[in-house]
Design goal:
Radius of gyration: 39 Å
Distance between the termini: 54 Å
Low-confidence stretches: 1-7, 185-189
Number of helices: 16
Structural class: alpha+beta
Shape: elongated
Number of domains: 3
Strand order of the largest sheet: 1-2-3-5-4
Amino acid sequence: MTTTIDKSPTSATLEGMTDNRTRYGRHWRGVPRDLGFLLLAMPLASVGFGLSIGLVSGGTASLITFFIGIFLLAGALYVSRGFGTVELVRLEWTGRAPIARPDWPVQPGFWGWARSLFGNGHYWLYLLHTAFINFIVSLVTWTITITWLAVGLGGTTHWFWGGLIPEGRNPWFLSRWLAWVFGGISGESSGVDWGMLDNLIQLVLGLAFLAALPFVTRALVNLHHLIARGVLGAFASDALRREVTSLSASRGAAVAAEGHSLRRLERDIHDGPQQRLVRLQMDLASAERELDRDPDAARARIAEATEQSRAALEELRALSRGFAPPILLDRGLLAALESLAVRNPVPVTVTSVTTGIPLPPEVERNAYFIVSELVTNATKHSGASAIGVQLSTRQEGGDPWLEIAVGDDGHGGAASVDGHGLAGLEERTHGLGGTLAIDSPAGGPTTVTARIPLTV
């Protein structure tokens, strides 16, 4: 069966009319919130205007006493910041797009606080907005809103209340004006019911104003939003400054993690394989001396040396888990983790829920190190009988991320302590621009989740 889709001009016109009605209905659904915003704008702006102007005036006048003037001006800036924040919250309540908030850093000490306050341009913009811009704009928008509502509601209800007002005192009565327009015709001589005509005109005028109300309120709130975005929003340089700070912190974390890993590797080699190799050397030397006079003792020494070499080899293999194995370079992260799971004394299950997003080699290497470290910690310290590793990739905010979750059924209580494994993993993850979350209540189970951006 073939289905024919009507693309005629008539069909397109009907679709356009339906779309317009739907859009008009959406505008009307936003009217209550827009009206709430606009009707409260003038009272709030008046309070903010009075407080900020009063504090600025008092602070400026008392600057000669320094401290009193400084604190009054600081109060004006804090009050303005509060009213500006309220304006942003109210705009978000109307359904408008959220505006990025500025940073409000505070440096330690009195002079640091003073520099953070009076040297932050956002405080002065908020003061300008509260003391002048918002007061003037709110006065205009509030007046337009009240007038528009008065004409719309007054016109549609004029048929009811218009007759209750004496004819000479009814400011809405248009009969005299209409009679003058039509050449001096009076209600008595023309036979026209000017009162009925006046009600009809008022009704049409009121309906027209009410029909346009969604567009008027929407435009007025959009005006507030446009001004707030320009005056109260964060600067483009704020995001750049945060990015630079984040990169500096990530670089410091990466350097600290690398130093921690090297110190730990040095300590592990010294306390483990190095001691066993020294013992191995001593056993072989002793066996060599006893080989002629006591072959049985020499064989026992050699057996001990063999056991020491086997233990040293196992410890070296355990230490090598922190380095990228050849299988990682040849077959990828999943295969390397499966190989790690096979060698681990506690059973490890590895699952992957990836979406085909390629993993950069640097991310694979760090992910392997993180998983091997977490598996080793769970094997040594948690008392677990089973360990699970799950990999997943996802898109968040347009950026790809790798999420690693390692869980065990041990006794729990794992925490990040300076100088220990989890603290080093936190530093390594932060150095990659990611995060490490530890969920390990007493009694278990334990789940450690690392999130690494794939754009490192």
